[in-house]
């Protein structure tokens, strides 16, 4: 007898669909966290002040890039829906308009960051040597912002076409190039933290060129115009507005966490840089499942196949919680071994290990949250996510302020801070997204 056949909605066939998209998507998703981890490892051996400055600067950059993540998410959802409805030329045209929007926003942010870097760092509570290093890194890395945003939009186009392999190849090459450039510029040419920012910027711009060429070739084959269409750009901006609000609530929570860590002293802030980088790496790894769900849900709703969408949701949640448990166990067990890679300071090492242990315990819940978030984004339910995001921020703020008021400085304070963020904040997100997914108001079909 041969192998049993599986219907399109069977668990095994859905697993194949999910993994075929999620495994390659992992590479593209972790590109930015890998850049930050490489920067942290290279800069950390320059000194604690440099690592603390990088912590502030990288969080500002990740906030700006994070606020623009709608460039990837709305493009993925739009292209997936149009492709599911059989409208490939319109799908690619939507993607091209998204890339033009990304380039315009990136150029504006580049200019703003060059001018506002000192004021931004000061607003986060830094001064002296830490502030100086943070401003230096921000200004040297600012040119890469436009590149990173174009990478987001181009990656969104490819995800919508259910191609996650190409972004994987480009992200892997970018991570390797970033490592080589950072070591060469920081230590070989003696540029210090400025070299780290410059190396990352060059890498991001080159990645944008490569992915941009790939999308443009696909658009030409399908007869899509390469010129910017104002209606399409404005439509993308309107669709992305609720996701900007949703992302703003997430980044506000992260920035509040950075401000609290700054008040807990240089040791806590330096440790927070490494812990947040590892959290980001794990989060993006789990988001690979969310990206698979986003593409499959968008395509299924575009084709009007609600039953398949529900099956995808169920299996992605199972994968998300399981992957979160595995990653969490690995992080919790490896914390004491990982810490020496990032700092020679024994106090910073303790802070890193304790913070990672807290994250590891709470990672399964994070897997649940990230998958549900991706599903609702793929369904175009941005307005609900915007309201839910602001509600979860309101829940988190009193706990963050309590840590700032009563937690001790150093490693123990950092552990309490991560218990508030990875515990309370993520639990609030789990409740709001889980409640929404139980209903059917987000299951809007059609292109």
UniProtKB/TrEMBL annotation:
Compartment annotation: Cell membrane
Pfam families named in the record: MatE
InterPro entries assigned: DinF-like, MATE_fam, MdtK-like
Membrane topology field: Multi-pass membrane protein
UniProt entry tagged with the keyword Nuclease: no
Keywords: Cell membrane, Membrane, Transmembrane, Transmembrane helix, Transport
Stretches that traverse the bilayer: 18-38, 58-80, 100-120, 140-161, 168-189, 201-219, 248-271, 277-297, 317-338, 350-372, 384-407, 413-431
UniProt superkingdom: Bacteria
GO molecular function: antiporter activity; xenobiotic transmembrane transporter activity
Cellular component terms per the entry's GO annotation: plasma membrane
CDD domains per the UniProt record, alphabetical: MATE_DinF_like
Name of the protein in question: Putative MATE family efflux protein
Species whose genome carries this gene: Promicromonospora sukumoe
